[in-house]
Design brief:
Strand order of the largest sheet: 4-3-2-1-5-6-7
Helix content: 25-40%
Number of strands: 7
Distance between the termini: 34 Å
Shape: globular
Oligomer: single chain
Largest sheet: 7 strands, mixed
Number of domains: 1
């Protein structure tokens, strides 16, 4: 998993509440177990017409938001069914951070396991960040996980809180497999001892 420390990028304003996982990635794309290639169908029903042409009014179809790395969204982002394909699609598109006042629990947990930073802010802070993102002349934000702050274009910073363990995992680029591999020496030692003590297994 790619490490996350400081992210500077265009923030896409998605001023809607209850953006669920089916909006993030429709169910017909859940047949794959590959984590790549899903970015092209991210927000498919909102981004594209049935014939595959782009909907010009959707934010990610506009400049400079086509290359967004951050989403600033309304309440309850990631609600709905518990599909890990949702963070896979966001990451494959290039989204590394989602900022909202609240997230669905399963989506929130899945983000950390895939290298995406979900940040909870207050309603007032979200309003300010949403206004920044809507300014197409300069919609860039800087997310600093080391200092745990978001730097706005006007120089004002927004502090955020995060569980210390999850923060360290993102900083170190450690998913569940990476955490397990940190104990590789102990695993190898256990296997040697098990072969000696329980050779019949």
């Amino acid at each position: 998993m790619e490490k996350f420390d400081t992210l500077n990028g265009v923030a896409a304003p998605m001023d809607m509440i209850n953006i669920d996982t089916d909006k993030i990635i429709p169910k017909l794309h859940l047949r794959t177990i590959k984590r790549t290639g899903l970015g092209k169908v991210l927000f498919e029903e909102m981004r594209f017409e049935p014939d595959g042409s782009e909907k010009p009014d959707f934010i990610l179809n506009k400049e400079p938001y086509r290359g967004s790395k951050i989403i600033v969204a309304g309440d309850n982002f990631g609600c709905g069914s518990s599909r890990e394909h949702a963070p896979w699609a966001l990451l494959d598109f290039g989204i590394r951070c989602v900022i909202s006042t609240s997230f669905a629990d399963i989506f929130y947990n899945n983000c950390f396991k895939n290298g995406i930073l979900p940040i909870r802010v207050t309603k007032e802070q979200l309003d300010a960040l949403m206004a920044d993102a809507k300014d197409a002349e300069n919609p860039e934000l800087t997310v600093d996980l080391v200092k745990m702050e978001i730097r706005r274009p006007n120089g004002v910073t927004v502090s955020f809180e995060l569980d210390a363990f999850r923060r360290e995992c993102l900083l170190g680029g450690l998913d569940d497999i990476g955490l397990t591999m940190q104990k590789n020496d102990k695993i190898d030692s256990f296997e040697v001892q098990q072969k000696q003590n329980q050779s019949w297994l």
